[in-house]
Every structure is written in C-alpha cells, then in structure tokens.
From TrEMBL:
Protein name per its UniProtKB record: RING-type domain-containing protein
Record keyword Chloroplast present: no
UniProt domain RING-type: residue ranges: 5-46
Organism for this UniProt entry: Cherax quadricarinatus
Biological process annotations from GO: protein ubiquitination; replication fork processing
Classification lineage: Eukaryota, Metazoa, Ecdysozoa, Arthropoda, Crustacea
Protein origin, superkingdom: Eukaryota
Length: 224
C-alpha cells in the first residue's frame, strides 16, 4: 500500500517525517504544521486540529533493503526533481529577463544623464554669455551716462557763451531780459560771477586793443 500526503501530493517514504491529526489522517509533518498555521482543521475531514494535537509517527524500517526501492516511489522522486528543476529554470529565466530589463533601463538612464548633462552645459554657456553681455551693457550704460553729462555740460557752456555774446553785442533790453532769466535760478550768483569775469576780460582786451591802435596812429603821425 502506498500512502501519501494530500497537502503536497508526495508519497511517504521511510525517511519522511509523518504526523497524524486527531482524526487519524496522516500528512508530512512540515505540511500539516504549515496548514494548521492557516486553518485549525484537518485538510481532509475538517475536524478540529492544532499543532499540539498532532501525533508524530515512526515507521519500523528494520530489515528493509533500501537498495531495492519501489519503482513508483523512485519515479515520483524523479518527477519531483524534474519539477524542481523546471521551477529553477523558470526562476533563472525570470531573473535573466529582469536583468535584461535592468540593463536596458540602465542604458536609458545613462543616455538620459548624458542628455541632461549636455543641457546643463548649454545653459551654463548661455548664462556665461548673458553675464558677459550684461557687463557690456552696464559699461555702455555708464559711458552713455557720462556722455549725457558731458553733453549737458557743453550745452550749459554754450548757453553761457551765447548769453555773454548777448551782453557784449546785444541791446540793453536783451541784457535785461537775459539777466531776468537768472533771477529764479539757484545758480544765478555763480552764473553772474562768470559773466562778470568774462566781461572784464573782454573789456581789458578791448581797452588794450584801443590803446594799441592809438599808439600806432601816434607813431604814424610822428613819423610822417
């Protein structure tokens, strides 16, 4: 008679640990213990069973010639080993597939990293170019401001010279009108002082020119 475990489907052999439930049904000890952890009942009759109620069975193998085993048992063991090999092969294939996926993912990540690194380099180059351009624009702005200030200074000087010309060659009404424009100007005192200094120089130059002209006429008269 061949007996086996209904949980795993394997036959009992002399070297297998077998345990019996309180109802009398027998199973591999490891199988029934795992079963009871999930369900406190016999897998066959569903009567109550616990790990403490299990009875471990011992088979008397005295006089048994282990060199002549049952062919059915051997075939079952062979089938079981083949099944284990098949499971391992499936596990290896799964691991190989996962390895292939990880390799492709790693390659994709490397390419993405290179792309991001290239983008960062381009952005850094752009930022450097913008900084250089900003410095150039700042220098141009300062030069433009300086030129603007110089132009204002030249316009002020031109206006002063035009006013001096009006004082020298204009009528008294023109002079009064020009001077009245400085009455509300905070810099009127400085402007008037400038006019006085220039007029003194003009007057001195005219006086010197008149004196030289009279001296030359006197010399010509005396030598005639």
């Amino acid at each position: 008679m061949r007996a086996g475990c209904v949980i795993c489907g394997d036959l009992f052999i002399a070297t297998t640990d077998v345990s019996a439930a309180p109802c009398g049904h027998t199973f591999h000890s490891a199988c029934i213990i795992q079963w009871i952890e999930r369900s406190k009942s016999c897998p066959q009759c569903r009567r109550k069973a616990t790990d403490k109620s299990l009875v471990k069975l011992f088979f008397d193998t005295g006089g048994l010639d282990t060199s002549q085993l049952d062919p059915d048992i051997l075939q079952h063991q062979i089938d079981n080993l083949k099944f284990q090999v098949k499971l391992k092969e499936q596990e290896i294939k799964t691991l190989e597939d996962n390895s292939s996926k990880l390799t492709k993912q790693n390659k994709s990540l490397r390419e993405e990293y290179k792309s991001v690194e290239s983008q960062v380099h381009v952005k850094e180059t752009t930022i450097l170019a913008l900084k250089t351009q900003l410095q150039f624009m700042d220098r141009i702005t300062k030069e433009a401001q300086k030129a603007k200030e110089e132009a204002k200074s030249l316009r002020d000087q031109l206006r002063v010279l035009q006013n001096v010309e009006s004082i020298v060659s204009g009528t008294s009404e023109d002079v009064e009108e020009m001077l009245s424009s400085y009455s509300c100007n905070p810099d009127s005192t400085r402007s008037l002082a400038t006019f006085c200094s220039i007029l003194k120089k003009v007057y001195y130059n005219k006086q010197t020119g008149t004196f030289r002209m009279m001296y030359n006429l006197w010399n010509e008269t005396m030598l005639a």
